[in-house]
Amino acid sequence: MKTAVPGPESKAILQRLSQYQDTRSVFFVADFEKSKGNYIVDADGNTMLDVFAQIASIPVGYNNPAFLALAKDPAFQTALANRAALGVNPNKDWVDQVEKAFMRVAPKGLDQVFTVMCGSCANENAFKTAFMYKAAKLRGDAEFTMDELNSCMNNQAPGSPDLSILSFSQAFHGRLFGSLTATASKAIHKIDIPAFNWPKAPFPLLKYPLDEHQDYNRSVEQQSLQAVEQLIKENKQPVAAVVVEPIQSEGGDNHASPSYFRQLQAICKKHDVLFIVDEVQTGVGGTGTFWAHEAWDLPESPDMVTFSKKFQAAGFFLNSRLRPTQPYRLYNTWMGDPVRAMQAAAIINEVESKDLLTNVKQVGGYLQSQLPTLPTLANVRGQGAFIAFDLVDGAHRDKLLTDMRQRGVNVGGCGDRTVRLRPMLTFQQHHADIFLNTLEDALKLQQ
């Protein structure tokens, strides 16, 4: 560490940038050319262990050689120089990229993929798919009527039906209109933005340690499930789908048991409501399995699984029965990006060739065993290396994050009092020790 964070060079760049863009959310300015592996370098030359990883979106380290090698691949260069509108003119190798990058790791039973540009886009299009499926069922899978075709142009029923997506308290699904309606993690995300009148069920807030609160946790999970079923039965706008995160990330890293999610899927199936799993933040290995929902041991796949972040590409997997009957209904100009698909394939190669899921389980287990020994921490929880803890005095959380950066560790927060760890899949035990030692020193200042 050479300067405070942010240092004078970061501050100078931010002062220039703030003339054109809002920089109030920026922690520091990065120098990605000098960053490597699990370490991020800032504009002032400070080198920090990065346990936040661009909001959980860097999978295999900065300047990974496999990524840099892609730049020399003629196919990558062609995709970079000639960006395709994939819905009308995909390149001849696009189907190869779909198979290498997406279908290779598709959740079992989901044989379709729709690619888009970001996690919010993925969820928005999954919601659209659910609405199209539900509307088709309600009309008996018949052709559109003229009344439907005309009324939708005025945003009125029956062509614009009053359907809904059921989500949960504390959820985060994105910042576009549908995804923002389904979001409930922070008021600042939603304030002043018109929203749809969609239902929200309470997500179970478990008590820790889990083995000391089994009866309570079963009770709150059952209360949540009962609320879901009641809303599906009674909501004025028919529920087309339930969307849920395997771990509520922005809302405070809230977990539920595998049994809870199995019962949630069963409720959806019972009422012919689609079950959407939002794996934008949890997908691609951070929890120790490629998809977090693999740990639930579901009797059958979710109806849709959305992804982005660590995959360096975005979209959602779905079953062929959900593919719209007519063309152009799931559609936009880019419909994803071949460049990002090639990066996604490289990520899978790295995960498999270096056995990174085993590494995540081992290092995550080590962190989860050591964190409870530190003072003033509470509610240590996690799945693999997707870990969080609360501060006993939550008012000190933001100061702790700042103090950690001054000591060379970049880490993030979520919820009101939670510190979340989002290390890369290449995070090793010696990195974990650096984090733990730095955290212990920073916590001493809080006492």
Automatic annotation (TrEMBL):
Q: Which reaction does it catalyse?
A: 4-aminobutanoate + 2-oxoglutarate = succinate semialdehyde + L-glutamate
Which GO MF terms are attached to this record? 4-aminobutyrate:2-oxoglutarate transaminase activity; pyridoxal phosphate binding
Q: Which cofactor does it need?
A: pyridoxal 5'-phosphate
CDD domains referenced in this protein's UniProt entry, alphabetically: OAT_like
Query: Keywords assigned by UniProt?
Result: Aminotransferase, Pyridoxal phosphate, Transferase
- Entry's EC annotation: 2.6.1.19
GO biological process annotation, one example: gamma-aminobutyric acid catabolic process
Q: What class of enzyme is it?
A: transferase
The name of this protein is: 4-aminobutyrate aminotransferase
Source organism (scientific name): Absidia repens
